[in-house]
Amino acid sequence: MVDAFIRQHKFNMDVGPDRSSLQAMEKDNKESIREYTQRWHEIAAQVNPSLLEKEMINLFISTFKAPYFEYLVGSSAQHFSSLVAIAERIEQAICLGRIADSTKEKCFTREKKETEVYNIEGDYKGERKSYQNKDI
Fold first, then answer.
1. How confident is the model at residue 108 (pLDDT cuts 50, 70, 90)?
2. How do the domains of the chain map onto residue ranges?
3. What is the pLDDT of residues 50-69, one digit of tens each?
4. Could you write out the DSSP letters of every residue in the chain?
5. Structure confidence by residue, pLDDT tens digits, 6-23
6. What is the pTM of this model?
7. CB neighbours (10 Å) of residue 67?
Protein backbone atom coordinates (compact mmCIF):
# COMPACT_ATOMS: atom_id res chain seq x y z
CA MET A 1 0.00 0.00 0.00
CA VAL A 2 2.86 2.40 0.82
CA ASP A 3 4.48 1.62 -2.52
CA ALA A 4 1.25 2.44 -4.36
CA PHE A 5 1.03 5.78 -2.54
CA ILE A 6 4.63 6.64 -3.41
CA ARG A 7 4.09 5.73 -7.08
CA GLN A 8 0.95 7.88 -7.23
CA HIS A 9 2.65 10.81 -5.49
CA LYS A 10 5.64 10.57 -7.83
CA PHE A 11 3.27 10.55 -10.81
CA ASN A 12 1.54 13.70 -9.52
CA MET A 13 4.88 15.46 -9.09
CA ASP A 14 5.96 14.49 -12.62
CA VAL A 15 2.72 15.83 -14.13
CA GLY A 16 2.58 19.02 -12.01
CA PRO A 17 3.75 22.40 -13.32
CA ASP A 18 7.42 23.28 -13.25
CA ARG A 19 9.49 26.38 -13.87
CA SER A 20 9.66 25.88 -17.62
CA SER A 21 5.87 25.55 -17.91
CA LEU A 22 5.50 28.82 -15.98
CA GLN A 23 7.97 30.54 -18.27
CA ALA A 24 6.06 29.28 -21.33
CA MET A 25 2.79 30.89 -20.21
CA GLU A 26 1.55 33.99 -22.02
CA LYS A 27 -1.01 36.67 -21.30
CA ASP A 28 -4.00 36.36 -23.63
CA ASN A 29 -5.08 39.52 -25.44
CA LYS A 30 -8.55 39.14 -23.97
CA GLU A 31 -7.50 38.97 -20.30
CA SER A 32 -6.50 41.81 -18.02
CA ILE A 33 -3.25 41.93 -16.09
CA ARG A 34 -5.14 41.07 -12.92
CA GLU A 35 -6.74 38.00 -14.49
CA TYR A 36 -3.44 36.83 -15.98
CA THR A 37 -1.62 37.38 -12.69
CA GLN A 38 -4.17 35.32 -10.82
CA ARG A 39 -3.98 32.49 -13.36
CA TRP A 40 -0.15 32.57 -13.36
CA HIS A 41 0.12 32.76 -9.56
CA GLU A 42 -2.25 29.82 -9.04
CA ILE A 43 -0.02 27.65 -11.21
CA ALA A 44 3.17 29.03 -9.62
CA ALA A 45 1.87 27.96 -6.20
CA GLN A 46 1.82 24.34 -7.41
CA VAL A 47 5.50 24.27 -8.46
CA ASN A 48 7.77 22.04 -6.37
CA PRO A 49 10.11 23.05 -4.88
CA SER A 50 8.50 26.42 -4.13
CA LEU A 51 9.72 29.50 -5.95
CA LEU A 52 11.74 32.17 -4.20
CA GLU A 53 10.32 35.71 -4.48
CA LYS A 54 13.11 36.87 -6.80
CA GLU A 55 12.76 33.78 -8.98
CA MET A 56 8.99 34.33 -9.18
CA ILE A 57 9.52 37.94 -10.28
CA ASN A 58 12.02 36.95 -13.00
CA LEU A 59 9.83 34.14 -14.33
CA PHE A 60 6.73 36.36 -14.35
CA ILE A 61 8.52 39.14 -16.25
CA SER A 62 9.78 36.66 -18.84
CA THR A 63 6.21 35.69 -19.78
CA PHE A 64 5.38 39.13 -21.16
CA LYS A 65 5.81 40.51 -24.65
CA ALA A 66 6.39 44.11 -25.71
CA PRO A 67 5.62 46.70 -24.47
CA TYR A 68 5.10 45.15 -21.03
CA PHE A 69 8.42 43.30 -21.07
CA GLU A 70 10.53 46.42 -21.74
CA TYR A 71 9.00 48.30 -18.83
CA LEU A 72 8.87 45.39 -16.38
CA VAL A 73 12.43 44.25 -17.02
CA GLY A 74 13.61 47.78 -16.22
CA SER A 75 11.66 47.96 -12.99
CA SER A 76 13.29 47.52 -9.61
CA ALA A 77 10.39 45.65 -8.01
CA GLN A 78 11.54 43.65 -5.00
CA HIS A 79 8.18 42.01 -4.30
CA PHE A 80 5.75 40.21 -6.58
CA SER A 81 2.87 42.45 -5.52
CA SER A 82 4.89 45.54 -6.49
CA LEU A 83 5.57 44.04 -9.91
CA VAL A 84 1.86 43.39 -10.41
CA ALA A 85 1.09 47.01 -9.53
CA ILE A 86 3.67 48.17 -12.11
CA ALA A 87 2.14 45.87 -14.75
CA GLU A 88 -1.32 47.30 -14.01
CA ARG A 89 0.02 50.86 -14.45
CA ILE A 90 1.54 49.84 -17.79
CA GLU A 91 -1.82 48.37 -18.83
CA GLN A 92 -3.55 51.62 -17.85
CA ALA A 93 -1.00 53.71 -19.79
CA ILE A 94 -1.54 51.53 -22.87
CA CYS A 95 -5.30 52.03 -22.58
CA LEU A 96 -4.83 55.78 -22.27
CA GLY A 97 -2.58 55.80 -25.34
CA ARG A 98 0.49 56.94 -23.42
CA ILE A 99 2.39 53.77 -24.32
CA ALA A 100 2.19 52.46 -27.87
CA ASP A 101 1.13 48.83 -28.21
CA SER A 102 1.30 47.16 -31.60
CA THR A 103 -0.68 44.10 -30.44
CA LYS A 104 -3.90 46.14 -30.10
CA GLU A 105 -4.84 44.54 -26.80
CA LYS A 106 -8.31 45.16 -25.46
CA CYS A 107 -8.41 47.80 -22.75
CA PHE A 108 -10.62 46.54 -19.96
CA THR A 109 -10.63 49.41 -17.50
CA ARG A 110 -10.82 52.17 -20.10
CA GLU A 111 -13.94 50.86 -21.84
CA LYS A 112 -15.83 50.61 -18.57
CA LYS A 113 -14.79 54.11 -17.48
CA GLU A 114 -15.82 55.65 -20.82
CA THR A 115 -19.27 54.10 -20.51
CA GLU A 116 -19.66 55.51 -17.02
CA VAL A 117 -18.50 58.96 -18.19
CA TYR A 118 -20.96 59.00 -21.07
CA ASN A 119 -23.78 58.11 -18.70
CA ILE A 120 -22.80 60.96 -16.39
CA GLU A 121 -22.41 63.48 -19.23
CA GLY A 122 -25.88 62.67 -20.53
CA ASP A 123 -26.74 64.64 -23.65
CA TYR A 124 -23.58 66.78 -23.80
CA LYS A 125 -23.01 67.71 -27.46
CA GLY A 126 -19.64 69.43 -27.11
CA GLU A 127 -16.40 68.40 -28.78
CA ARG A 128 -14.39 65.68 -27.06
CA LYS A 129 -10.75 66.61 -26.62
CA SER A 130 -7.92 64.09 -26.79
CA TYR A 131 -5.13 64.41 -24.24
CA GLN A 132 -3.05 61.51 -25.49
CA ASN A 133 0.70 61.96 -25.91
CA LYS A 134 1.87 62.01 -29.51
CA ASP A 135 5.15 60.41 -30.57
CA ILE A 136 7.72 63.06 -31.27
1. low
2. 17-120
3. 999 999 999 999 999 999 99
4. -HHHHHHHHHHHHHHS--HHHHHT----TTS-HHHHHHHHHHHHTT-SSPPPHHHHHHHHHHT--TTHHHHHHT----SHHHHHHHHHHHHHHHHTTSS--TT----HHHHHHHHHHHHHHTT--SPPPP-PPPP-
5. 666 665 555 788 999 999
6. 0.66
7. 17
